[in-house]
Amino acid sequence: MAHVAPVAPRSRAGLGSSTWIAPVLAVVYGIWAAGIHRDAGPITWGNVLFGVVAGLAAAALYVGLRKLAPGLPRELRAAAWAAFAGIAFGFLYSLTDASILRSVTMASVVAAGVGALVFYRAYTRE
Fold first, then answer.
1. Please, which residues have CB within 8 angstroms of residue 69's CB and are 6 or more apart in sequence?
2. Residue 13 has pLDDT above 80, yes or no
3. Residue 22 near residue 58, CB atoms below 8 Å
């Protein structure tokens, strides 16, 4: 009986998720940050610049984490994605003039949820 060597999985045709998620993340995060920072006032160049910088920073961190995370063990991968989500959400929440304690608490809840989900996904897929 002949044995067959395992075949590497074929990649999906078309655009991968890494090609379109980063620009969409940058736009959505930037608009969200600029909208909160505007605080129902008029749209100014300062608000637009704030949104562009926040969106570009979030997208750059996302792309860097996408490159770095696959090489990490599942625990560190989950912690890295949890930190990214917690910091991103905590920054947006702090723009609402909430207290620092409330911002940290809400960011910690989001980070714990994302960390648990990423760890579960990594644990069940390996």
1. 77, 80, 81
2. no
3. no
DSSP calls for 98-113? --HHHHHHHHHHHHHH
> What tokens appear for 15 in the block?
């655009």
pLDDT in tens, 58-102: 999 999 999 998 899 999 999 999 999 999 999 999 999 899 999
Token couple for 76: 């560190």
* Best CA proximity match to 58, nearest among 91, 82, 105: 91
CB 5 within 8 Å of CB 45: no
């570009």: which residue's tokens? 56
Pull the structure tokens for residue 11: 């990649």
How buried is 111 (Cβ within 10 angstroms: 0-12 exposed, 13-18 middle, 19+ buried)?
A: buried
For the chain, the first-to-last Cα distance in angstroms comes to: 29
CB distance 81 to 64 below 8 Å: no
What's the whole-model pTM score? 0.81
CA distance 124 to 109: 23
What angle in degrees, to the nearest 10, is found between the helix axes of 74-94 and 100-125? 150
